[in-house]
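Hi there,

I know you've been waiting on this one. I reran it after we fixed the sequence typo, so this is the corrected version. Both the input and the resulting structure follow.
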Amino acid sequence: MTDIDLQAQTSVEGTSERLSAYVARPSTPGPWPGVVVIHEAFGVDDVMRRQADRLASAGYLAVMPDLFTHGGARRCLWATLAALKKGEGRSFTDIEAARAWLVDADDCTGKIGVIGFCMGGGFALMVASGGGYKVTAANYGVVPSDPDGALAGACPVVASYGGRDRALKGAAGKLEASLDRVGVPHDVKEYPAAGHSFLNDGPAGPRWMQPLLKVTNVGPEPESARDAWARIESYFDQHLRAG
């Protein structure tokens, strides 16, 4: 597990200056399928690194670009969210740089998936139709404003939401209905006991925010997380390892 200078290792133009990424490699012999990991709104922290490590332990070469490289979460969050809403911008270029790095990696099979958490879940849905991914895992990600247009032609989608997530009420049903309409294979599930960020294995974000996050149902829910990870790993196995 290591941090790399992603900008220096990819030919993709227009990335964030000095774009960095966290890379987690399996301990088994490669080559391995690749997964682009898109972090939540608190950035590349220890919780997100452990999510990438978990994917590596399952046999995937995981790379997580730091979408806040240009100036940290405080300076970059709103610009990154604006890019997500618009569907274009430097954040998407940075994500593409991570995918291109996997394509060029000698220890990657060339089969690549994408997984996102929170803000990253929204990005995972937005890049699902670009043709570069075999499977998308979107975890409590905002549904695109024009879901049918954004998801037409998308790769298979596995998505997980929390029934106690106040900010994304009804998102699971909205996403599933859209995927049904555009004919994209999918597995969408809402967990009644879970809130936002329920796949995290510990509290994320600044310490001063912890009381507020707890009150607003943001944080781990281990039982729901176990089931969600089982579904994600099953989908990834099916679409990144088969054949």
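Quick highlight: The chain has a mean pLDDT of 94.

Best,
R. S.
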